Amino acid sequence: MEARKVLAKFKVLVEILPVTNKILNLTLASNQKGFEDAIQYFTAIEHDMEIITTRSKKDFKNINLPILTAKEFIIR
């Protein structure tokens, strides 16, 4: 139940973006190693996001967006 409370508060701060067939097709056709990371990347591209924030920058190689940790995002 506590996780639901945290997620409800977090959802006020962010917008949840849809994962479409186009995004899944781009992901499946890509050379990205991590499937979930590729979904995040193509979702960001499709929605004109400027950066990706992650705990694992090494999972996002050879992409065209800045990759920041949460700490880097906050202090920028």
Q: What are the defining features of this structure?
A:
mainly alpha; two-stranded parallel ribbon; 4 helices; 2 strands; 51% helix; globular
Verbal overview:
The protein contains four helices and two strands; from the N terminus they run H-H-H-E-E-H. The chain is mainly α. It has one domain. Strands 1-2 form a two-stranded parallel ribbon.
Brief account:
With 76 residues, the chain is mainly alpha-helical. It is built from four helices and two strands.
Q: What is the CA-CA span between the terminal residues? A: 34 Å
Q: How are strands sequenced across the largest beta sheet?
A: 1-2
| Major beta sheet summary | 2 strands, parallel
Order of helices and strands: HHHEEH
> What radius of gyration results from the CA coordinates?
14 Å
Overall residue-averaged pLDDT value: 92
Helix content: 40-55%
Structural classification: mainly alpha
Low-confidence stretches: none
Overall spatial form: globular
Topology (SSEs and partners):
Blueprint: H1 2-13, H2 21-29, H3 35-46, E1 52-53, E2 67-68, H4 70-75
Parallel strand pairs: 1-2
